[in-house]
Automatic annotation (TrEMBL):
Keywords: Membrane, Transmembrane, Transmembrane helix. Belongs to the short-chain dehydrogenases/reductases (SDR) family. The chain crosses the membrane at residues 66-83, 195-216. The lineage of its organism: Eukaryota, Metazoa, Chordata, Craniata, Vertebrata. It comes from Eudyptula minor (Little blue penguin). This is D-beta-hydroxybutyrate dehydrogenase, mitochondrial. PANTHER family: D-BETA-HYDROXYBUTYRATE DEHYDROGENASE, MITOCHONDRIAL, SHORT-CHAIN DEHYDROGENASE/REDUCTASE FAMILY 9C. Pfam families: adh_short. InterPro entries: NAD(P)-bd_dom_sf (IPR036291), SDR_fam (IPR002347).
C-alpha cells in the first residue's frame, strides 16, 4: 500500500521518481467516447499527479528528482489528439512543479520522445473495421468507411516507422536521474520530428495547420 511504501522509503531514503505510465488510442474527436477520454486522462495525467503528490514529502526531504514521460505530440497531433491532450497537460503540470520545487533542491525533468511506437508498443495497429463498428450513428452519418480506412492506414504507417532504439529514451531518463546538471527537457527524436516541433513552437498557428493538413492529405 501507499502508506507502507512511504514508511519504508522514509527509513532508507528516496531520491528519484519516474512517471512513465502511459496508454494511447487513435480516433478523431467525435469518434471517442467520454469513457475513453476519462480512462486515458486518468492514467496519463492524473496517475502521474497522484504518484507525485504521494512521494512529494520524501522527494523534498531528500532533494530528489522527478522525471515525467511526455512526448513531442504535446506540440501537435496527427490522429491521436486524446494522447496529445494528456501530454500537453503533463508539460504544464511539470512547468509549475519545476519552479515550485526549485527552492527545495528538487529537480523536475521532462522526457519528450519522438515516435518509438515499435519499441514501446503503446499503440497497437489500428483496425478500421473496429473503429467503424464503434462509431455512433451520428458519426457514421458524417463519415464513411473509406475515410476511416484512409485515416487508419495513415496512422498505421506512422506506427510502422517508429524507432526500435528504445534505449535512447532510457538513456535520457538515466541522465535526468543521475546528472549533476540535468536538463529541464530531453527531446529524444529524429531530426524531422524536431523540425516539426520547431515549426509548431515558433511559426504562426496557420503555418503549422497547413503543414499538418498537408501531411494528413497524403
Amino acid at each position: 500500500s501507499e502508506k507502507c511504501l512511504l514508511r519504508h522509503f522514509s527509513s532508507v531514503g528516496f531520491w528519484g521518481l519516474v512517471n512513465n505510465a502511459g496508454i494511447s488510442t487513435f480516433g478523431e474527436t467525435g469518434w471517442l467516447s467520454m469513457e475513453k477520454y476519462e480512462k486515458i486522462a486518468d492514467v496519463n495525467l492524473l496517475g502521474s499527479i497522484r504518484t507525485t503528490l504521494a512521494f512529494l514529502p520524501l522527494l523534498r526531504k531528500y532533494k530528489g528528482r522527478i522525471v515525467f514521460m511526455s512526448s513531442i505530440v504535446a506540440y501537435f497531433s496527427l490522429g491521436n489528439g486524446i494522447y496529445s491532450m494528456t501530454k500537453a497537460a503533463i508539460e504544464k503540470f511539470c512547468d509549475a512543479l519545476r519552479l515550485e520545487m526549485k527552492k527545495f533542491g528538487v529537480r523536475v525533468c521532462i522526457i519528450q520522445p519522438g515516435n518509438y511506437a515499435r519499441s514501446t508498443r503503446i499503440q497497437p495497429p489500428v483496425s478500421a473495421e473496429e473503429i467503424w463498428n464503434e462509431l455512433s450513428e451520428e458519426e457514421k452519418a458524417v463519415y464513411n468507411k473509406e475515410y476511416v480506412q484512409e485515416r487508419a492506414n495513415f496512422f498505421n504507417s506512422i506506427l510502422s516507422k517508429g524507432s526500435t532504439n528504445g534505449n535512447e529514451v532510457v538513456d535520457a531518463m538515466v541522465d535526468a536521474l543521475m546528472s549533476p546538471t540535468p536538463k529541464a527537457r530531453y527531446m529524444v527524436a529524429k531530426l524531422t520530428e524536431k523540425a516539426l516541433v520547431f515549426v509548431c513552437a515558433l511559426f504562426p498557428t496557420v503555418v503549422m495547420d497547413s503543414v499538418l493538413s498537408y501531411a494528413l492529405s497524403k
